[in-house]
Specification:
Elements lengths: L5 E6 L3 H12 L5 E7 L3 H10 L4 E3 L2 H4 L7 E4 L6 H10 L3 E5 L6 H14 L3 E4 L6 H11 L6 E8 L2 H5 L14 H19 L4 H25 L4 E8 L2 E7 L4 E8 L5 E8 L3 E7 L10 E8 L2 E7 L6 H14 L8 H20 L6
Parallel strand pairs: 1-2, 1-4, 2-3, 4-5, 5-6, 7-10
Antiparallel strand pairs: 7-11, 8-9, 9-10, 11-12, 12-13, 13-14
């Protein structure tokens, strides 16, 4: 019988854990208790263990998942290890939250799904943007359009450090990573990309990792709002910027993403109908309390009207974890399942295949 307060084990105590997950979990003591931490950095373990008063500290995730009193394992380490840790946790009967990308290959995605089903546990993939009330309200608004004419997805951001350093979370970076761990991570990364898309050059390797990181948020949002695209009409990449044109049955979707050195966060989804358009604007998740808005533009009887709706200041990560808690203890449903997440890999491959036909040079 699961207790009301869920015992959580955290694998990976780096930047995202320190800025996002650890503070939010600590702010919800009626729902979650941080019970165990794991990281390859012993200095990070010591620091975060002291800060959050956690005594069970591990440098090996295979040991953490065996801790008998854990209800949930959060997989927050580097994505090369996501599948392995999630499967190990599932095989120990633990529920799992995996930060995106869930996996980098179809084989790993299928293995996660198999472990989930075999062990009768629940897994949530951390697409927090899809739990934002503004997005969910926008999806309903989009469903009310007579037809979609066109859509645009954009995510162009500056370096994470710009936002993290102003977050107030004061994350610490530790350099005591064992050399063997660094080498293992590099070798895994190369093998996973090769297994997923073949032996490709540096440019396509960068694109695939960009899609798995930043792109998985955007394309997951696109999928929920519009469904799966039929094909990629065209794609191009120059430096650190990617453009893709998706084909749907009755409309096209333009997707643009990239990383530069500007201190701004330009992420949005916009759907165009005949007399109405719906737009969702996201801000950086690293600074707590920045609102996510949806904006409705419509023309009625010749008059153009713009309505800006801000449903809440509560951040999507908190809402995501509230949903996760209800799914584990009550009647809540998880919509960002491993089965759902697998569709991102389908879209990644569509984009890479389109780029391969162009014989993209290394830039």
């Amino acid at each position: 019988m699961m207790s009301k307060v869920l015992n959580v084990g955290i694998v990976g105590t780096g930047e995202v854990a320190q800025v996002i997950h650890l503070p939010i979990l600590a702010s919800m003591p009626d729902k979650f208790r941080i019970t165990a931490l794991c990281d390859v950095s012993e200095e990070s373990l010591a620091y975060n263990g002291k800060k959050y008063e956690v005594e069970n500290l591990y440098t090996d995730a295979k040991e953490l998942v065996k801790q008998s009193n854990l209800d949930v394992v959060f997989v927050l380490n580097s994505d090369e290890y996501h599948a392995e840790v999630a499967i190990d946790a599932a095989n120990e009967g633990k529920h799992v939250l995996i930060e995106k990308p869930m996996a980098l290959t179809m084989e790993d995605a299928d293995a996660i799904i198999e472990a989930k089903n075999k062990n009768n546990i629940k897994i949530m993939v951390g697409y927090m943007r899809r739990y934002a009330p503004a997005f969910e309200a926008a999806v309903k608004e989009i469903g009310g359009l007579d037809k979609v004419l066109y859509a645009r997805v954009r995510d162009i951001i500056g370096p994470n450090e710009f936002f993290v350093n102003q977050s107030g979370a004061n994350p610490k970076r530790f350099m005591d990573i064992p050399e063997a761990a660094i080498v293992d991570k590099q070798e895994r990364a190369k093998k996973l990309v090769t297994d997923a898309i073949g032996d490709v050059d540096e440019q396509l390797t960068f694109v695939y990792r960009l899609l798995g990181g930043l792109g998985s948020h955007d394309l997951s949002v696109m999928r929920e709002a519009l469904g799966m695209p039929q094909s990629v009409i065209g794609a191009g990449v120059k430096g650190r910027f990617l453009n893709t044109l998706f084909e749907y049955e009755n409309f096209n979707v333009s997707y643009e993403t990239g990383i530069d050195q500007q201190g701004r966060f330009d992420a949005h989804l916009e759907i165009y109908g005949e007399t109405k358009s719906v737009r969702v604007e996201y801000d950086t998740p690293y600074i707590k309390g920045l609102p996510i808005k949806f904006i409705v533009n419509e023309t009625v009887d010749g008059a153009f009207k713009e309505t800006v709706i801000r449903p809440t200041y509560k951040d999507p990560y908190t809402i995501e974890l509230e949903n996760f808690y209800e799914a584990l203890t009550g009647d809540g449903e998880i919509k960002t399942t491993p089965e759902d997440s697998k569709n991102d890999l389908v879209i990644f491959k569509m984009i890479i295949d389109a780029l391969k036909t162009k014989k993209v040079p290394v830039c």
